[in-house]
Amino acid sequence: MNTAAVVQTALPMAGSEITLFSMFWHAHIVVKLVMIGLVAASIWCWAIIIDKSLMFGRYARSMDKFEEAFWSGRSLEELYRSLEDKPVHGMQALFQAAMREWKRSFDGQRRAVGSLQQRIDRALDLAIQREGERLQSRIGVLATVGTSAPFIGLFGTVWGIMTSFRSIAASNNTSLAVVAPGIAEALFATAIGLVAAIPAVIAYNKLQSESLRIQGRLEGFADEFSSILSRQLDERAAA
Fold first, then answer.
1. 115-121 — which CB contacts under 8 Å span 24+ positions?
2. What's residue 187's pLDDT?
3. Mind listing the UniProt keywords for this protein, alphabetically (predicted)?
């Protein structure tokens, strides 16, 4: 690296006011790329956090509304017809998958009820798996950013400090006015890494907990609905 370029890069802030913009503007190109990458990762994380928070809110409201309709005394056939041509998720998706298998077994000239309970349970399990994948999608990005952003910021800090020390050695000047700007630029990268990582970790823990809670509700509903269909199947067999 050219000595004059190092000095010019690391020392332009000496004697001038240190601001966030000036620290970024006068940082080494490698440190700038680190900062830009961390800011982009932070924006991406916030987009995921907002989207998932809204999504989980819709899930909770939808499940509450469906449970109210399901336990209101309406017939299963009527409830199924009301959802048949609509895009569904959550409990509605589980209900639709099980009822679809139920109707396939009883519709037509030949009734295939031999292992209907097992087929319904498999349909419910597959529906729960699909809903779980939908709930968990992109949450892992938050964990990745939360664990890696501080180290990426630290890499930018180390690089910036190395550049500052090279400029100090080249200029033969160790005064605080010369050293402080370069060190501040370097530490700014770590600060941005922490700003990206801390909300990502907090949001990951919260969203992961909310996702598991919703999946628990889905599994509980699947067990109850499977029991209801099993009783109806036994009643038909006894009739």
1. 116/233, 117/226, 117/229, 117/230, 117/233, 120/226, 120/229, 121/226
2. 85
3. Cell cycle, Cell division, Cell inner membrane, Cell membrane, Membrane, Transmembrane, Transmembrane helix
Q: Of the candidates 188, 192, 183, which has an alpha carbon nearest to the alpha carbon of residue 163?
A: 183
pLDDT, mean of residues 209-214:
93
Alpha carbon distance 157, 173 (integer Å)? 21
- pLDDT (tens digit per residue) in 54-65: 999 999 999 999
Higher local confidence (pLDDT), 21 or 53: 53
Question: 125-135, pLDDT tens digit by residue?
Answer: 999 999 999 99
| Alpha-carbon span 223 to 135, nearest angstrom | 20
Give residue limits of the domains in the chain.
3-7+31-238
Can you tell me the distance from the alpha carbon of 82 to that of 1, in angstroms, rounded to the nearest whole number?
71
pLDDT tens by residue, 79-128: 888 877 777 788 888 988 888 888 877 665 455 555 788 888 898 999 99
- Cβ 124 vs Cβ 98: under 8 Å: yes
Residues 181, 11 contacting (CB under 8 angstroms): yes
The token pair at 3 is 């000595």
- Are 186 and 145 in contact by the 8 Å Cβ rule? The answer is no
The 10 Å CB-count burial string (b at 16+, else e) for 90-114 is: bbbbbbbbbbebbeebeeeeeeeee
